[in-house]
């Protein structure tokens, strides 16, 4: 959820709660005031009744009391009469046969020496209508005020946050590999202006570090490969010398193997650095299924030497977007891993579909956690040919170019699966 929508959602919930509480409080206050007015008028009628009884020493219906319903009932005077009390009651209207709400004041008054129970009632129908009209008006105007305030808040927040969204869109389009600096506007709002200044400084520093690292990796790749190639060439010449003893030949073989290992390490680490820095930008559609078949054909002599059978289940081709060089490196590492960790007389099986590509191979049981094989310099077994970077390169390529790689081992079958991320 966007920040602006989240803020508006919280504001709307808070406003609704305040609105309901205010409406309830307003209704109760209005009802209290109206009831207080009705009860005050009933007390005035009570005093008029008492004055009438004191003057005439009797009670009879009088036009003076036509507005109110007065019921006088004689009662036995055995105990002290209770004090006056107000209550709500309903009286049937004899004209339209409907119950009408009344407010009733009940008190006891002696009339000609006999205690009588007196109930003075005043109709609340007009009061209720007034209360309904006030409530409806309040709901209408407060609802309009709430909607208007919410609309204004949304428009105002959208305008206030527009510089932030402009900055966010510019950052999304920013490319570290570009030579152009990050260009951000200078908004009038102080906080956004300071944010843009900080982002410009960060982008400049990141661009500088990126180009420095890129230059280092390119220089290291060029400068280190030359002396390593020279060392290998000289060592090969020494190996061919006839005057070497068996001990010297053993030492030279060790030096040659170590130099080759250093060269592979150098190539692997530089490749990882280039992938992490997104230096491969020529992305094209690649048919990984067809490329995998080609890699296996290229390794035909090795497969024959190790007597490894290759089979393929029919299925759709798995196509992805990858730089061609990285696609070749990805498949080469997978095939080399399947051959290196296989056993003589084993097999390799390829399964392909539109959504994934599987490479299965026989081999010895696994002694480490499958997920740890994708870490750098982690390898299964003590093979001197492996430097422990093959599957790390595979994982880095997949993570960078939105692919997913998984490894499973069950009953002597090793399965590496490539799939697209949803």
Description of the structure:
The structure is a single chain. With 422 residues, the protein is of the alpha+beta class. The protein has 3 domains: 142 residues, no CATH class; 87 residues, Methane Monooxygenase Hydroxylase, Chain G, domain 1 (Up-down Bundle); 137 residues, Heat Shock Protein 90 (2-Layer Sandwich). It contains 8 helices and 11 strands. Helix 1 runs antiparallel to helix 2 and helix 5 packs across helix 7. The protein is elongated. Keywords: Kinase, Membrane, Phosphoprotein, Transferase, Transmembrane, Transmembrane helix.
Quick gist of this model?
It contains eight helices and eleven strands.
**What is the domain total for the residues?**
3
Low-confidence stretches: 63-67
Residues in helix, %: 40-55%
Number of helices: 8
Strand arrangement within the widest β-sheet reads: 6-8-9-11-10
Mean pLDDT level: 80
The assigned structural class equals: alpha+beta
The N- to C-terminal Cα distance equals 20 Å
EC number: 2.7.13.3
Catalytic activity: ATP + protein L-histidine = ADP + protein N-phospho-L-histidine
Organism: Fibrella forsythiae
GO molecular function: kinase activity
């Amino acid at each position: 959820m966007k920040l602006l929508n989240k803020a508006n959602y919280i504001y709307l919930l808070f406003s609704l709660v305040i609105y309901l509480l205010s409406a309830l409080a307003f209704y109760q206050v209005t009802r209290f005031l109206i009831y207080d007015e009705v009860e005050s008028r009933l007390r005035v009628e009570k005093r008029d009744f008492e004055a009438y009884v004191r003057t005439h020493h009797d009670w009879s219906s009088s036009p003076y009391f036509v507005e109110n319903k007065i019921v006088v009932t004689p009662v036995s005077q055995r105990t002290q009469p209770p004090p006056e009390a107000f209550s709500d009651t309903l009286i049937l209207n004899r004209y339209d046969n409907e119950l009408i709400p009344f407010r009733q004041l009940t008190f006891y008054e002696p009339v000609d020496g006999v205690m009588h129970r007196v109930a003075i009632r005043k109709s609340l129908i007009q009061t209720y209508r007034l209360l309904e009209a006030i409530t409806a008006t309040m709901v209408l105007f407060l609802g309009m005020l709430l909607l208007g305030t919410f609309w204004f808040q949304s428009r105002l927040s959208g305008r206030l946050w527009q510089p932030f969204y402009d900055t966010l869109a510019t950052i999304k389009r920013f490319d570290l590999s570009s030579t152009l600096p990050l260009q951000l506007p200078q908004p009038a709002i102080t906080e956004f202006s300071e944010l843009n200044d900080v982002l410009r400084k960060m982008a400049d520093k990141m661009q500088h570090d990126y180009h420095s690292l890129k230059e280092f990796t390119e220089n290291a790749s060029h400068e280190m490969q030359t002396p390593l190639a020279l060392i290998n060439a000289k060592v090969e010449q020494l190996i061919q010398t006839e005057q070497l003893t068996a001990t010297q030949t053993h030492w030279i073989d060790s030096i040659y193997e170590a130099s080759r290992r250093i060269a592979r390490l150098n190539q692997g680490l530089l490749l990882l650095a280039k992938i992490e820095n997104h230096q491969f930008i020529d992305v094209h559609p690649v048919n990984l299924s067809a490329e995998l078949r080609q890699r296996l054909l290229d390794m035909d002599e090795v497969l024959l030497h190790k007597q490894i059978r290759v089979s393929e289940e029919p299925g759709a081709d798995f196509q992805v977007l990858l730089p061609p060089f990285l696609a070749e490196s990805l498949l080469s590492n997978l095939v080399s891993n399947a051959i290196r960790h296989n056993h003589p007389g084993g097999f390799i099986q390829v399964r392909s579909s539109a959504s994934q590509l599987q490479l299965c191979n026989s081999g010895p049981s696994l002694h480490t956690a499958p997920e740890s094989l994708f870490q750098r310099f982690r390898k299964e077994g003590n093979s001197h040919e492996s430097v422990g970077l093959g599957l790390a390169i595979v994982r880095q390529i997949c993570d960078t170019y939105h692919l997913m790689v998984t490894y499973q081992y069950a009953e002597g079958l090793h399965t590496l699966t490539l799939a697209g991320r949803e």
